[in-house]
Amino acid sequence: MSQDWGGTVNTAIDNLTSALRSNIIPNQEYLLQGSVLDSAVEILLHRLRGLCDNVDSGPETFHDHEMCFSIRGNQTQPLLLRVRRALDFPDMPYQLRYIGQPEMEMGVGDKARPTIVRSSIDVACSCTVVEFLTEMGCRMDFEYISRGYMFRKGRMKILVSKIFKMSQGKPSDSGVEPISQSYLVELSILAPGGQDVIGEDMKAFAEQLKPLVQLEKIDYKRLPLSMAP
Prior knowledge:
Elements (H helix, E strand, L loop, with lengths): L1 H20 L6 E10 L3 H11 L8 E12 L7 E8 L7 E6 L3 H4 L9 E10 L3 H7 L3 E15 L2 E11 L9 E3 L3 E10 L5 H11 L22
Antiparallel strand pairs: 1-5, 1-9, 2-3, 2-6, 3-4, 4-5, 6-7, 7-8, 7-9
């Protein structure tokens, strides 16, 4: 029985490795970020409704609790993991996400690229994932609530999020407060590696949102670890 299980695991790993090498799995995130003041967010939402798909149905809304974990090994950079759960849909699976270091920060990317490029893998999991990560030695660096709107334009995803800090450690409306008087705006595409032309499409779309919001690459070397996305 154990031999069969081991063979199954090895086969799964081989298949995953092969898929990654063949650029089948969308494991690269192309990302631009910016912010918009609370006083201008309705104007931005109106513009996005006109530019994005599904104009009639409007954007999707979300209300999520996100926990950010890290674990340090022999590597210089810590391994970053995120757990997100939908507060509006408690029966939905939790989402575990691995985020790699931005390529431009690691010296292997081209600084002329119009977007950040980083590894990103998402998997659905059970609510016990937090306990599992803790047992593995991961440390929760911070957590927050995000509430806002999601738009789509082709394969581009646009998030307009209000970020709240949890003052009492409970993700309830009475125990949170906004961290700023602005909304975080993120434009991203998840795709297999080697598709840098995607960045040009994102840059062209971002131009249509000016001057309401300036979407750009963020230099994470200038930010503390706790502020990195």
